[in-house]
Amino acid sequence: MVNYNTEPVLKVEGLKQYFKSAGGYVVKAVDGVNFEVYKGETYGLVGESGSGKSTIGRAVIRLYKPTDGKIIFNGVDISGKMSKTDTEMLRTKMQMIFQDPMASLNPKKKVGEIIGEGLDIHKLYSTKEERKAKIDAILKKVGLAPEHFERYPHQFSGGQRQRVGIARALIMNPDLIIADECISALDVSIQAQVVNLMKDIQEETGSAYLFIAHDLSMVKYISDRIGVLHLGHLLETGTTDEIFSNPIHPYTKSLLSAIPSPNPAVEKNKISLTYDVREAGIDYTEGTEHLIDGTHYVLGTDEEVAKWLSE
Amino acid sequence: MDERKKILDVKNLDITFKTSAGPIHAIRGVNFDLYQGETIAIVGESGSGKSVSAKAAMGILAGNAVVNCGEVLFNYTDEKGTPEQVDILQQDIDWIRKNINGKRIAMIFQDPMTSLDPTMTIGKQVMESMIWHYKTPKKEAYDRAVELLKEVGITDADKRMKQYPHQLSGGMRQRIVIAIALACDPEVLICDEPTTALDVTIQAKILELIEMTQKERHLSVIYITHDLGVVAKVADYVNVMYAGKIIETGNVDEIFYDPRHPYTWGLLSAMPDLETDDDRLVTIPGSPPNLLHPVKGDAFAPRNEYALKVDELAEPPMFKITETHSAATWLLDPRAPKVEMPEELKKRIARMKKEGNVNGKL
Fold first, then answer.
1. Which residue in A127, B24, B47, B119 is deepest, having the highest Cβ count within 10 Å?
2. What angle do CA A169, B227, B238 make, to 5 degrees?
3. How many Cβ atoms from other residues are within 10 Å of residue A196's Cβ?
């Protein structure tokens, strides 16, 4: 069980990430987002493409320099200029798993080298034997065999490659793993294997996950809490139960109605809801966070929230 | 009910790909048929041969493909109105390009960005096939293209005609691809993962659009997908493929409410529905076989917890369950021990049926 009374592993406050594009335009990819992730918890970020979910993941791990806002990781502010020890802490204790395992693994390196690279950079072993033992233990943990150490990424199947990606993240013993669409490129039967593996690892190590995905049924299954993003704004956040059984924001509702269910009798009669920001006349920048109950927050003006609640 | 008219009949299709690593036996005896106005879905994991089967039906196989045997019988009426039947596999490439591709059988591909030409205006791309196939005068083609764009739900159709693909969003681009496919009034539409590259909210809209045009134009549709949610929404009949073979076929209710093949059980249980609250997802262990190596016995046996001894020796034939439903597993042989589907799946199907009854009445 997740203990919500402790300090969160990751605290994001008013995060803004703007990009300058050609012609003097500014793309507001993330525009004032607040959320927290606790130890041993999985926080799911969902939204359509362009909603800023990957940008948040990349800003949090500091692949970008945030335009504004605070990112507090393990009690340290990592949003601005960091000291050497803070950088070191961030680079070891926060790890990322990427979407396409083929594109994120170096094709010219053996799997053992890929997994051990983090250990080399941060000098986390004293002897060669210790290094090998650490890598072997991780390989075993993600369901690969020690002989896989000597193989190249192309010799693996998609599911196995993603296991290598997970092993590479795990070997640093991270407190937070950012999983950016880490199962979208896999087949259904393999997705289930990887998700089960991630759950097992979380139980064992107590790492927190920031799980970024567009597949809502998987997000519902793996997440403790969910945040719904649209156009750079976090529209609704709450426990999985709160979001799925009592969606308030019209965008969340349309998103939930669009999930295809593997049940023909239901699916054939379903007509999905449409949502268009302009048609709905909602200006996200004017909204404030409203508490519905428990940990369930919705972004909107007072009138909007009152209207949605009465519907 | 009118009598069902068979449009496409694929019989005993067998295809090998020549590669530098050796021959890959990608399709190992595939049979399916398609009737007018109906929708079939071909479901399977990547590498199961679902796309290759459809490409063979359209005569657009890759150059290194060798058709070992099989027939693709296509029934159509020619320009003079006489019914004709051809075996697409026996026709030469020029004939197929002139008479089949884009004209009678059209295809919608997965990624709209790669299937549209980035250097050509949208109008030109929609008009292209009409001008090429029917020598439609330019003015007329232009008007028809605008009509088509309106039909697929594109606003400001006149303005869009002059725009380029990069100026549109993913969902809009896929609508353009659909408009292009419909340009020559085809009889068969093949949709190869039409919504995989799109967001969920847009996915539902595109599927509803395809369904609507299908009803209006009396199209026959083949869906190729790995997403069972999509299948549940659109299909009348479902073919489940594994390692180059169809291992279970039936109408959509039979596949979802009464699956018989252990692989179908696995597929259905591996996808969490919104009610799944168990701690673990049911998985199919291992990964699909590499078809570079010849398959002995049942290709699914190594991953099948219900595998019998005979599975290692002989390939199971299709066992008929009902008129429309059959499955290739030795478990259906009268001599086989009686094996029931996993308990969780049984519960889920009961739940689905209940939910379907409640919602179906609305």
1. B47
2. 150
3. 17
Report domain extents, chain B: 6-235, 267-360
Choose among A229, A225, A208: nearest CA to A46: A229
Q: Which amino acid is at B76?
A: Y
pLDDT of A165 reads: 93
| Other beta carbons less than 10 A from residue B166's beta carbon | 9
Q: A221: which DSSP letter?
A: H
Strand, helix or coil for residue B247:
strand
pLDDT one-digit tens code per residue, B165-220:
998 888 889 999 999 999 999 999 999 988 877 777 788 888 988 999 999 989 99
Can you list the domains of chain A with their CATH numbers?
Answer: 10-310 (3.40.50.300)
Token pair, residue B135, equals 């020598």
Q: How far apart are CA A310 and CA B61, in angstroms?
A: 57
Q: Give the CA count within 13 Å in the CB-facing half-sphere of B150.
A: 8
The reply to whether A203 touches chain B by the CB within 8 Å rule is: no
CATH class in words for B6-235: alpha beta
Query: How far is Cα of residue B40 from the mean position of the Cα atoms in its chain?
Result: 7
Interchain contact A231–B (C-beta under 8 A) = no
Instruction: State the Cα–Cα distance between residues B116 and B118, nearest whole angstrom.
Output: 6
Chain B residue with Cα closest to A200: B280
8 Å CB contact of A187 and B226: yes
Q: Residue A261: which pLDDT band, with cuts at 50, 70 and 90?
A: confident
**CA-based nearest residue in chain B for residue A261:** B229
- In chain B, which among 9-38 make CB contacts under 8 A with chain A? none
